Amino acid sequence: MPRAPHVVLVLADDMGYSDLGCYGGEIATPTLDRLGRAGVRLSRFYNTTRCSPSRASLLTGLHPHQTGIGILTSDDRPVGYPGSLNERCVTLAEVLRHAGYATCLSGKWHLASSMWTPSDAWPMRRGFERFFGTLAGCGSYYRRTTLTRGEVNVEHEAAAPGFFYTDAITREAEKFVRTHAEREPTRPFFLYVAYTTPHWPLHAPAEDIARYRTTFDAGWDELREARLRRLIAEGLMPAGTTSSDRDPTQPAWRDVPDQAWQLTRMRAYAAQIDRMDRGIARIVAALTATGALENTLFFFLSDNGASNEQLPFEDVERFVRRRSIIPPATWTGAPLRIGNRPDIEPGPEDTYASYGRAWANLSNTPFRFYKRWVHEGGISTPLIVHWPAGGLTPRIVHTPFQLTDVVPTVLEATGVGYPETYPGRDLLPLEGRSMLRALRGGDVEPRTLYWEHTGNAAIRRGRWKLVREPHLPWELYEIDVDRAELVNHAASHPDVVAELSKEWSAWASRVGVIPWERIQELYARERKGDPAG
Questions:
Q1: Is the omega angle on the peptide bond into residue 198 within 30 degrees of 0, that is, cis?
Q2: Does the predicted TM-score (pTM) go above 0.90?
Q3: Active-site pick, 110, 199, 375, 386
Q4: Is 471 a catalytic residue?
Q5: What is the pLDDT of residues 81-128, one digit of tens each?
Q6: Domain ranges of the chain
């Protein structure tokens, strides 16, 4: 048994803040609930509001703009970002592998603009000794495009009877844990498990969907109220917390004309998370069976808030041409039924649907907004950290942290230093700080946090959070007592707005934020559609 801890990092895709049972949700997540309640749960942990930027920040300890991935993996040079990990950063896998760790990625990468031809931004060239997964951001769970093993396309593996991508990710991770214990029992490992669950399309086996036949019948209004009560009871939100109102663009549940169809959408979404939790149970069982769980630093989180994305988000003909995320047909040759319509009941392989804005509003209870925004609904994620041998005992940590803090935490826990130099690269220093003291119950002074994504901007310092949408004025919230961002103090505290906006601008300049207006002009000229991720 190695003395240095193993590290397991599990990432969900587009899952909301309150979807897990131990974060107030109705979905059956007993494995994550058990790890969360036996370990540490963070109530104010923040991601970077979108798939690729969050992954870049999570793996490098830098802000995404510094890594070359300010939006997604589109190469927008010379105006915009390159869309691939650049040479100014190293991944956690590279650092840990250099220190003697075995490294494995099972699941989604989404950090390279080239998804068909290997490049220096592919996993095997960024520190992972083993890789099974996808280069693209999303896609069918039954017929997965860009499916790769090492650097070889293995889309044919998805043709095997019973293939389901969530299960395939689990199987590869579980196999790595067991095989590693047999072959290299004294060597520590870093396992990154990047599920695409519950990112659209809403694909799930019928028996999984059936488990939620009546779970959501009360509708999104009552369920949001119930989730908030449970969040307070869990100690994740203080008593007296006020939830945001239902999204004003959405109807009250009692007025929804197609309730039966709406329920099928949320049932399919829940089934995706349910199956992921059962997959995590298999990984935890492998860690337990090999004697590794006690000394494994285990993280679970989501890359952004719940997604309100509607399908298709452009004309159908253009949407279906995106071969990196949409297969040409099912394995039997049947055409795909694409869109969010009552005649398309999600779940089967031939459907391509999402669960919509009102259910995403439920997933992000008690917050406003969604993936892509840097209001709380876009950037708030559950974070579970479990490490019994490292002195982590059951507690909830309320100190604000963000993705840049994960790498420093892992490095402190493993005793591995961040390299001052790296062959062929001019490295930037880490932006985050270790959370380990706070995870062990120690006092940690909050620090200033920053965000930017597609013109959405925010800064959180002390009691205040300054936030804005693209092309709109700054909003100011007393965030410790108003997590739902309901009372805007910008007009009454112009001095705070001026001070924090100036500080945000200095940060944006330092980390290389490219003005969103410039990129919008590029997209308009080249008629680029909305990137998926």
A1: yes
A2: yes
A3: 110
A4: no
A5: 999 999 999 999 999 999 999 999 999 999 999 999 999 999 999 999
A6: 6-442
